[in-house]
Design a protein that fits this description.
Layout lengths: L1 H12 L4 E2 L2 E3 L6 E3 L4 E2 L6 H5 L4 H18 L3 H11 L18 H15 L11 H21 L3 H30 L2 H22 L1
Antiparallel strand pairs: 1-2, 2-3, 3-4
Length: 209
């Protein structure tokens, strides 16, 4: 009890006072170390906590995920990247992908993505595994992965992982949709589920960048 009172008195008298090599800040459970990092209850700084998932690994994972999105829906991936770039969370200025951050680019790609969601359910739409569809998904998956890679200073690994993700999305998406269509006895529910998965993954990438 005595120790608690002394600690409380110390904090009330000196909100910015030194305590060891740290400074108590707003929260009773948090103090600021001598280098400006926030310490938690177990003595980790905020920077150490953030490094539990290294930024490079985090970015490379996102590159794979956005590639998968492209494999599912070709236009969904660049639409997501364009929104991230336009928000300023993904700096692409000075790169060959700078156009993704232009004012109207997100709206254009969003419109294209919406059109794709409709045409995907038409019987006349070719398989995503035909050369033209396959190439389109590789293009959007690779470029979207490269864009994520620029955010972590690794555009080439990002591009490669975006391509890998696109291939996974193409074949994995086609196989999963075929199984769902067989289970439902109809392709439309399977297509809608795939749409939802692509949208959710795209949104997760945008908010995680």
């Amino acid at each position: 009890m005595f120790a608690f009172d002394i600690r409380r008195l110390f904090r009330s008298c000196c909100n910015r006072g030194d305590y060891g090599d740290g400074i108590y800040a707003r929260s009773d459970a948090t103090r600021i170390d001598g280098r400006g990092g926030a310490w938690d209850d177990v003595g980790h700084t905020g920077s150490e906590t953030a490094m539990l998932v290294p930024p490079l690994l985090h970015g490379l994972i996102l590159a794979v995920v956005i590639g998968i999105v492209a494999g599912l829906r070709a236009m969904m991936a660049p639409a997501a990247i364009a929104w991230a770039a336009s928000r300023g969370t993904l700096p692409l200025q000075g790169t060959w992908l700078a156009f993704l951050g232009y004012r109207f680019t997100p709206w254009i790609f969003t419109l294209l993505a919406a059109i794709e969601l409709v045409t995907d359910q038409l019987p006349s739409t070719p398989s995503r595994k035909v050369p033209s569809q396959f190439a389109a998904r590789l293009l959007t998956g690779g470029s979207s992965g490269a864009a994520v890679g620029y955010g972590i200073g690794a555009p080439v690994p990002g591009l490669v992982l975006g391509l890998v993700g696109a291939v996974v999305g193409i074949y994995g998406g086609a196989a999963s949709r075929a199984r769902l269509a067989s289970a439902f006895g109809n392709d439309r529910p399977a297509a809608l589920i795939e749409d939802a998965v692509a949208i959710i993954l795209a949104v997760l990438v945008v908010v995680s960048i």
